[in-house]
Amino acid sequence: MLYIGELVRVALSNLNRQGLRSYLTLIGVIIGIAAIVTILSLSDGLNNAVTAQFEKLGTNSIFIFPAATSSGINTNLKTIKDSELKKIKGLPEISEVLAPVMSQGTVEFNRKKAKLSIIGSNPKEAKSWESVGFVELAEGREFESKDVFVALVGADVHEVFGKEIKVRDRIVIEGRSFRIISLTKKTSQSFGGGPNTNNTIFIPEKAFKQIFEQNEPVFALARATSKDNVIKAQEKIERIFERSYGKDQKEFQIQSSQQLLDQVNQVLGLIGLFLVGIAAISCRKHRDNEHHDNGCNGKNQGDWGNESYRSNQ
């Protein structure tokens, strides 16, 4: 019977006989295992980051956003009508509705022009954006009711213009001059149809309505009075849109934060499994190629081990 010390000696003897190829195989297996462990760790980290983002939104959040077409692109987005918003806000299960008006606008700064997302917001809505984690001020102040031509600028907007943007600077939006009163911190990409606020400029709703024709939102976030009321509130919101667009309406999707989180985690899980599978197959293929080469040379690892053992009897 071979003892551990003898097994180690036999294994080292095999490695010496087979030379560099065995060491490369060993390194390949180690790298493959390390790759699998790394992929699993990254997948867990990403899942945790996504979960943290949704926790900011709250378990009582319900998203209302335009449905995608079969091609994944909807070039004719429906807006949420004022009458629909009033009905949603009037539901006893709903405590708050955040429905910003949005449009693409030409922005000028540092003698450069660019098309950026512009959101019109009132002071109450601006605070709600902060409460759900979409926006966090890095510098400056919040909107006040008296404000008109002032702007809150997203963290990445300066990259478009190649120059640092500061509080009290001026930018031009659709030919109107705006004074910058605040800058945001960089946040995670938004989920559930919400905008990427890092590349967005917020202006008071009063100014927005003077500049843009688009005065109805395409996205809304409703907050249920409690987690227990989410399903009931969601069903009532769905019925509101069914009355507008028919029972099988496909204009808007209405989903809770938990539903969206489950979908995102499912996709991330599949991606993680796919990447782990690739790493495992690559590792297995490398190992099988080594075994095939050994067979072509007329010996396998078992033969070497037996000979080494017999030579020491």
UniProtKB/TrEMBL annotation:
Q: Which residues form the signal peptide?
A: none
Q: Which domain of life is it from?
A: Archaea
Task: Give the keywords, sorted.
Answer: Membrane, Transmembrane, Transmembrane helix
Domain MacB-like periplasmic core, residue spans: 23-239
Task: State the protein's name.
Answer: ABC transporter permease
- Cellular component aspect of the GO annotation: plasma membrane
Q: Name one GO molecular function term.
A: transmembrane transporter activity
Signal among the record's keywords?
no
The membrane-spanning stretches of this chain are 23-42
- In this chain, the stretch annotated as Disordered covers 288-313
InterPro entries named among the record's database cross-references? MacB_PCD, Macrolide_Exporter_MacB
Keyword Isomerase among record annotations: no
